[in-house]
């Protein structure tokens, strides 16, 4: 067994791991990075980038379908599934290639392949070939799809989103379980590319939304386009020949039995920490076996072990993984000089159509923090009659903004609508800069733009905070359809 000693070991070479490695290197040259699987981040291989490639194809097809509404008549789009998937795979591989190039630039002696397991708080064993003794560790092992056991009844017809991006052609039909970010994005995209899609969920939730009114609106909007049941009753799951068969209660309360080419399980992800031997380290774990870590330092208790990215089970987004990796790497490199790192305002987006976005504190978090004291106000706007949105036939959307009573401090937002990914950035900057609603209303708004809908919601919120008058309907100084 090979024996090595070093200052810092980073377990995992994804977004968080690469960030941790580079930042630990700022304090010491003695950093080793361990990776068991293929190099290339979750985002590049099976996450945000290939999914957006599929969505881009779906948007192109949908724009042709919608063209007659503008008086632009054309034939129905002809979907070449093989060409669609060839571009998805090709561009996906290109993005992965960028990551691989970055990894190849790292010193070869710093990279070790294999599965790591803690022998104790200062030693990890890599497969059956190496034991490394280190002074500090960063756990950045990512996550994997969570597939409930009963889905195994579908046999080889069961897939996860990773499998979708290796398809050579589009199937005829897919049942999607899980109307969260992945399920909603892929389900709608496949539907727009001509695949028969039915999307099933449990409990009525859709996307990451927690605000009941925004949830209801989202369920209605997506349900108008394709079959969505976010609180489904499904039974009799099995593989029949080369099909997946299931029985469900439809919207009319009648049982339906259907067969699909595939069942896509988009039922969440779990941190890859269960095989690390964390019980040998002495650090405190939660009920799921995930290390408890300080969100500002990424330190596990007062130990020399840090955690970052999806493995931390905090916020599973690429930019958060990069930030956490930076904090964990810096602190592991200069330990015991542990410092708080920059944690940005929370921001999340779903690239459906209409898009979904959440910023700052969610409705659920605010209710838990403020209770029923009425200490926060809600401003709202519908995008259905918003001028610029109607011009583009993108006028589906509903927004809630939240602010603190008394101070007027802007706290967060949940919304569905056009350009949500861009509006979310404006709102996240407002949260991070601790702006009040009156200060936000002092910012410039051009005409005609979708952001005028945001201004309407801010004015509504300002009135409910009692900082200004009620909204003037049909305010012509704002421009028509503002």
UniProtKB/TrEMBL annotation:
Active site: 447 (proton acceptor)
Boundaries of every Pyridine nucleotide-disulphide oxidoreductase dimerisation domain copy: 349-457
InterPro entries registered for this protein in UniProt: FAD/NAD-bd_sf, FAD/NAD-binding_dom, FAD/NAD-linked_Rdtase_dimer_sf, Pyr_nuc-diS_OxRdtase, Pyr_nucl-diS_OxRdtase_dimer
This protein's record includes keyword Cell division: no
EC number, UniProt record: 1.8.1.4
Required co-factors: FAD
Binding site for NAD(+): 178-185, 268
Group of enzyme by EC: oxidoreductase
Disulfide bonds listed in the record: 43-48
Residue sites binding FAD per the record: 52, 141-143, 310
Cofactor-binding details, from the entry: Binds 1 FAD per subunit.
Segments forming domain FAD/NAD(P)-binding: 7-325
Keywords: FAD, Flavoprotein, NAD, Nucleotide-binding, Oxidoreductase
GO terms, molecular function: dihydrolipoyl dehydrogenase (NADH) activity; flavin adenine dinucleotide binding; NAD(P)H dehydrogenase (quinone) activity
Similarity comment text for this entry: Belongs to the class-I pyridine nucleotide-disulfide oxidoreductase family.
NCBIfam families: PRK06292.1-1
PANTHER family linked to this entry: MERCURIC REDUCTASE, PYRIDINE NUCLEOTIDE-DISULFIDE OXIDOREDUCTASE RCLA-RELATED
Protein name (database record): Dihydrolipoamide dehydrogenase
